[in-house]
Design the sequence.
């Protein structure tokens, strides 16, 4: 390769290159890279089993270590092909098998950099033109007149990796900084009712009904003071507040109790029966005192009472995610502390303005509306098990189209897939979940796959003769022994 | 040649004896039932129900068809019988039952005041949407067992009459068949004719007097006409929903003939014949082994044909089917390699793997569900889906074969590596070839999986645990192949890695579904059997350790 007339420096350089290529293309490095890749991604699957796929991506598959191993693999593969230069005919399957991997990796990288993989949720009969993507952002809008809002702040954040508890995020606002102080990856949000100082809040009462089989407690929470609150539990209705004048006069046609506070830490009640023959019960109760209702053999008790009660969300951190958990942040604004779950919005009122603060998944505008006209579901005969489902959508310029499992819709370079659906408690579908996807690396990946598969099969087919020569020459040698 | 012929007859003799056996209840077995989203013969319904409750398809020698019918007719007499299988010791402890017992009576369970507590636990776990660990899975089975027994007793489980044609044929609930509990008076009358002859059959069975063949013949005839009248009536209600008689007959034939069982019996015989050919050095045994293997192989294919016909899909949609498919693949590859080299032990390894797979599939019905269940939506009718699963799982067959060959190779290493040099060389080559076949199928298989994922939900690769573990297994074998080229692995190394690397396949194949239990491939998920799989792996690791220690000592002593 090196001409005799070349200078010593050139000679030195070319021998250096040759040594470098030989080292980088070494099979030992290959084996080490393959083994470390296997170990690394195996760890990833255990992370996914313990947490979820998103966290496995963040902790393993999209980390420096992964890129390091993949990078070394690419260098190793390139070097091994350079080392075979000049290529001959017998090298073809070998080159194909290895170049295929490089092409495949390149395609994946392109998808990762320039691709889009988002979710489009559309309620039945509704429309949507925003695709949500996994990345999260914080947004602040403000208004001084309560009508026109202007965006004050927007930033993409990854609180899972850059925890605000280590370095809080300060958002400068005209009336003071909004400071995000804490991120909790797995939070259970529950409803909680507590006494309130706020005079504008109505009262709240917690009661219990029980007999041998039933044991149920429930809150009655007034929206405003003096406005009755009602709950219906199976066979009876429960009201916090006195009955209306009309009911007082005519009575009720249902099993119904009205209860309201009376002087001396007591509660006054009137209890009606569905059976018009039975006389209503009237009287007073103290906290915790049992009342035989005469509805089946149910006993009624007041467990708790607040003159002013307020419903708040309670955030409880847990160790591991499950389908009910979500992530949440804590933040401070003008000396007060707040909590907010992901994909939620809160309004912050000050003396001069109102701010809207949101934290959640980024949304990408499709620039066209997708209308979900109908969602159809097939079920296996005589069961509630889904056998197939599909969305009937209307897209501007395309008209009505059907998107079903394995039958995506292609439009403006995007591919829209039927991913899943949401149901209500009755098992009726209420929304369709579509996955929207733009993949510029697709054909490169397919090309790489083809080259790789061809190479591997060809390579091993060619090894036939080679292996035959290594083997014992005759069957007799193997089958006859001793 | 004589003996080969004899072997042939021997296998077919089994078949003929099976064929000629026909019970008086034959007509009842064929009665169509709607259950779990499909129409099946009563035979299948009874087998599956008893399997769920008792863990077996017969109870004290009595077939499921009889047990289930008597349960329906007279549940009270069953209250005291030990028929509910509970395996998990924590469930037994939770119910304060004897931990050493395996079967319990309905009485014991339903009158237990702790049962509602346990079911509350289960419901709470479900509400939390938490993953169910083996304890809760066992509770879930108990819940199903109770459900089946109760609804069987009140007649709501056995659905026999299709509804009249509805105006809204797309609605699945309008396709719900009428159960015994919902029968009209005339329907009850028709059905009681059926149960009447059934009871006659039972009384004939218990009678101690010598059975009169004409009486049995008469009874068979009676069952035929009564059941015939009933199904005639049922069909008339909605002929469009009633299944074709041939399909039902074929399914009963599949249940009763059980081709996979014949396949593994043949494989075991073939395995034995190869061993004998080693011991006695008679090529006659070797030829016999080939013939019996082929018979088994045909049975295997026949079983697949039946299954594919009955389900209308390729046979790789759950763990059970993949195990049977891997056994099939192992046979295919071993016969190909054996034909090229004629070294005998490849056929030996192949029949061993195939028999092992089929026996495992046949003996663990709770873990590997053999029923013909309808598919989840994503799995329905998709070319790419089926090709990727078929390709990946058949590559596992090649790796399994490599492992079995490596097992034999290590045996020669343990005995005497010098003396058995040619055998070892041949085995190492077979292991190497089998690994190459495996890699040559697994790599394209994983890519096909990517194409399917891309086609179905627009994601070529998503680090889903099932696909990731398939990739890990591939990387493992690729590392071994490169290690061989690099000279890192010599003969002994290839054998050892042929055994150890298969652990990765076990993880990808079984472990992801049964141990990790995460990811998109959750439609194949199940529970149980971890202890057996773990001991399978552990025994192989011990075997490798033992061989390695011997190998090292020998090397030292030579130096």
Sequence:
């Amino acid at each position: 390769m090196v001409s005799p007339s070349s200078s010593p420096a050139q000679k030195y350089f070319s021998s250096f290159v040759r040594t470098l290529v030989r080292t980088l293309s070494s099979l030992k490095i290959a084996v080490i890279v393959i083994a470390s890749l296997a170990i690394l991604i195996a760890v990833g699957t255990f992370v996914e089993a313990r947490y979820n796929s998103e966290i496995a991506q963040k902790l393993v598959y999209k980390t420096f270590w992964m890129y390091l191993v993949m990078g070394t693999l690419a260098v190793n593969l390139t070097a091994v092909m350079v080392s075979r230069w000049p290529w001959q005919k017998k090298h073809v399957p070998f080159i194909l098998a290895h170049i295929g991997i490089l092409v495949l990796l390149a395609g994946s990288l392109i998808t990762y950099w320039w691709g889009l993989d988002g979710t489009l949720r559309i309620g039945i009969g509704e429309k949507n033109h925003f695709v949500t993507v996994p990345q999260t952002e914080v947004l602040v809008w403000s208004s001084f007149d309560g009508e026109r809002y202007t965006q004050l702040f927007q930033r993409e954040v990854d609180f899972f990796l850059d925890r605000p508890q280590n370095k809080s995020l300060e958002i400068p606002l005209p009336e003071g900084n909004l400071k995000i102080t804490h991120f909790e990856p797995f939070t259970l949000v529950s409803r909680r009712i507590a006494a309130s100082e706020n005079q504008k809040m109505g009262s709240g009462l917690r009661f219990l009904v029980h007999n041998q089989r039933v044991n149920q407690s429930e809150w009655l929470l007034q929206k405003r003071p003096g406005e009755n609150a009602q709950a219906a539990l199976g066979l009876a209705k429960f009201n916090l507040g006195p009955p209306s004048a009309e009911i007082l006069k005519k009575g009720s046609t249902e099993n119904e109790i009205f209860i309201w506070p009376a002087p001396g830490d007591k509660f006054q009640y009137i209890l009606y029966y569905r059976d018009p023959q039975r006389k209503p019960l009237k009287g007073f109760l103290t906290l915790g005192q049992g009342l035989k209702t005469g509805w089946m053999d149910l006993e009624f008790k007041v467990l708790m009472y607040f003159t002013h009660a307020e419903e708040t969300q309670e955030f409880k951190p847990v160790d591991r995610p499950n389908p009910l958990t979500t992530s949440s942040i804590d933040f401070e604004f003008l000396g007060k502390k707040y909590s907010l779950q992901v994909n939620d919005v809160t309004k912050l009122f000050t003396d001069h303005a109102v701010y809207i603060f949101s934290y959640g998944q980024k949304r990408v505008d499709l620039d066209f509306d997708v209308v979900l006209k109908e969602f159809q579901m097939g079920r296996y005969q005589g069961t509630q098990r889904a056998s197939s489902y599909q969305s009937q959508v209307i897209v501007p310029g395309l008209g009505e189209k059907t998107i079903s499992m394995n039958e995506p819709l292609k439009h403006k370079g995007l591919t829209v897939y039927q991913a899943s659906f949401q149901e209500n408690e009755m098992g009726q579908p209420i929304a369709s979940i579509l996955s929207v996807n733009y993949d510029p690396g697709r054909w490169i990946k397919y090309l790489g796959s083809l080259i790789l598969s061809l190479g591997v099969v060809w390579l091993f087919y060619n090894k036939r003769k080679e292996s035959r020569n290594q083997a014992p020459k005759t069957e007799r040698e193997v089958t006859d022994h001793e | 040649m004589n003996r080969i012929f004899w072997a042939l007859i021997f296998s077919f003799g089994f078949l003929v004896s099976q064929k000629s056996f026909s019970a008086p209840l034959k007509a009842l077995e064929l009665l169509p039932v709607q259950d779990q989203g499909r129409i099946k013969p009563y035979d299948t319904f009874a087998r599956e129900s008893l399997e769920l409750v008792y863990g077996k398809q017969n109870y004290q020698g009595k077939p499921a068809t009889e047990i289930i019918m008597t349960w329906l007719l007279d549940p009270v007499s069953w209250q005291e019988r030990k028929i509910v299988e509970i395996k998990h010791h924590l469930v037994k402890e939770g119910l304060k039952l004897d931990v050493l017992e395996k079967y319990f009576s309905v009485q014991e369970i339903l009158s237990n005041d702790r049962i509602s507590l346990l079911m509350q636990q289960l419901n709470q776990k479900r509400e939390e949407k938490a993953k169910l660990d083996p304890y809760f899975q066992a509770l879930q089975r108990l819940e199903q067992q109770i459900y089946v027994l109760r609804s069987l007793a009140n007649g709501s489980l056995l659905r026999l009459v299709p509804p009249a044609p509805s105006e809204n044929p797309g609605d699945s609930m309008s396709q719900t068949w009428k159960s015994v509990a919902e029968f009209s008076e005339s329907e009850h009358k028709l059905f009681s004719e059926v149960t009447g002859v059934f009871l006659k059959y039972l009384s004939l069975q218990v009678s101690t007097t010598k059975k009169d063949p004409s009486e049995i013949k008469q009874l068979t005839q009676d069952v035929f006409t009564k059941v015939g009248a009933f199904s005639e009536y049922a069909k008339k209600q909605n002929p469009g929903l009633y299944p074709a008689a041939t399909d039902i007959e074929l399914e009963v034939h599949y249940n009763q003939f059980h081709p996979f069982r014949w396949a593994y019996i043949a494989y075991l015989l073939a395995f034995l014949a190869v061993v004998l050919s080693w011991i006695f050095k008679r090529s006659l045994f070797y030829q016999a082994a080939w013939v019996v293997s082929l018979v088994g192989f045909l049975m295997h294919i026949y079983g697949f044909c039946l299954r594919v016909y009955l389900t209308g899909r390729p046979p790789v949609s759950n763990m059970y089917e993949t195990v049977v498919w891997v056994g099939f693949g192992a046979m295919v590859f071993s016969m190909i390699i054996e034909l090229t080299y004629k070294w005998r032990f490849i056929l030996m390894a192949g029949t061993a793997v195939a028999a092992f797979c089929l026996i495992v599939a046949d003996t663990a019905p709770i873990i590997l569900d053999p029923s013909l269940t309808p598919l989840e939506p994503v799995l329905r009718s998709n070319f790419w889906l089926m090709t990727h699963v078929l390709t990946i799982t058949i590559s596992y067959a090649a790796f399994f074969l490599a492992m079995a060959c490596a097992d034999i190779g290590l045996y020669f290493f343990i005995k005497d590596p010098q003396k058995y040099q040619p055998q070892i060389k041949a085995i190492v080559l077979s292991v190497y070839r089998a690994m190459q076949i495996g890699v040559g199928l697994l790599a394209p298989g994983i890519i096909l999986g990517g194409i399917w994922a891309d086609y179905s939900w627009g994601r070529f690769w998503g680090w889903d645990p099932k696909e990731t573990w398939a990739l890990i297994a591939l990387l493992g074998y690729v590392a071994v192949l490169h290690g061989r080229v690099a000279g890192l692995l010599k003969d002994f190394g290839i054998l050892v890695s042929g055994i150890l690397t298969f652990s990765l396949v076990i993880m990808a194949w079984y472990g992801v579904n049964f141990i990790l239990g995460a990811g998109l491939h959750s439609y194949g998920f199940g529970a149980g059997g971890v202890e057996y799989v773990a001991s399978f792996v552990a025994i192989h690791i011990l075997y490798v350790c033992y061989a390695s220690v011997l190998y090292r000592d020998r090397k030292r002593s030579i130096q």
User: Anything to note?
Assistant: Chain A has a mean pLDDT of 87. The helical segments of chain A are 8-24, 27-50, 53-61, 64-83, 92-114, 245-250, 442-470, 475-479. Residues 117-129+365-438 of chain A form one domain. Chain A touches chain B through 67 residues (CB under 8 Å).
